[in-house]
Amino acid sequence: MPSYDDALSLFHEWTTTESLRRHAYAVEAAMAHYALHFGEDEALWRMTGLLHDMDYEKHPTPDKHPFVGVKVLRERGFPESLCEAILGHATYSGVPRNTRLAKTLFAVDELAGFITAVAYVRPTNLEGMTPRSVKKKLKDKAFAAAVSRDDIRVGAAELGIELAEHIAHVIAGMQADASRLGFAAPA
Predict the structure, then answer these.
(1) How far apart are CA 137 and CA 131, in angstroms?
(2) CA atoms within 13 A on the CB side of 178
(3) Which of 58, 78, 105, 107 has the fewest CB within 10 Å, making it most exposed?
(4) How far apart are CA 108 and CA 151, in angstroms?
(5) Does some domain include residue 183?
(6) 3-class SS at 179?
(7) Residue 58 CB: number of other CB atoms within 10 A?
(8) Confidence class of residue 156 from pLDDT cuts 50, 70 and 90?
């Protein structure tokens, strides 16, 4: 299996925009947190989160993303479980989310983006963020309007975790990697 460093090099080769890199790092951080929570392979879960949108910058349309990236990942010897999870995070792919890895990737993807948006409007960013404050923002349809609230709810339900608890897990994962995500500790 390719190493995390192999995955990071490939990701940087395919993804150059800072915003998409930060999104992938946020999803990776949440996936790492959940891997530890569930007692799973942290390296595999990190790589799955990191690489889930690897091809999006070059191939953002549903006929290409995530199919182009998964083809490259398979050619490079990444595990099929990683590839299937990445395919499953795209609801239009037709690939079911049958594994905990796939369900978790889907569950954290939109939520990590939403939590990032919430962090940007808070003076303390991720520090002190609570599930309650995130849930309040979820009710505001104009805030981060592109984020699918339905995907967030479905993701938590597929994991079998109550939404507030799921939000807490994703916040904790992102807080653990706050500086990498561009959120410095407040002065």
Answers:
(1) 10
(2) 16
(3) 58
(4) 9
(5) no
(6) coil
(7) 13
(8) very high
One-character DSSP codes across 42-82: HHHHHHHHHHTTTTTTT--STTTTTHHHHHHHHHTT--HHH
Residue at 36 is within a domain: yes
Q: How confident is the model at residue 185 (pLDDT cuts 50, 70, 90)?
A: low
Residue 184 domain flag? no
Question: In this structure, are residues 117 and 111 in contact, taking their beta carbons and an 8 Å threshold?
Answer: no
For residue 107, name the pLDDT band (cuts at 50, 70, 90). very high
CATH code of residue 13: 1.10.3210
The tokens 């594994």 sit on which residue?
Answer: 99
Is 156 within a domain?
A: yes
Rounded distance between C-alpha atoms, residue 167 and residue 161, angstroms: 10
Give the count of domains, the chain: 1
Query: Per-residue pLDDT for 119 more than 90?
Result: yes
CA distances from 48 to 126, 130, 166 (A): 23, 26, 18
Domain range enclosing 69: 4-176
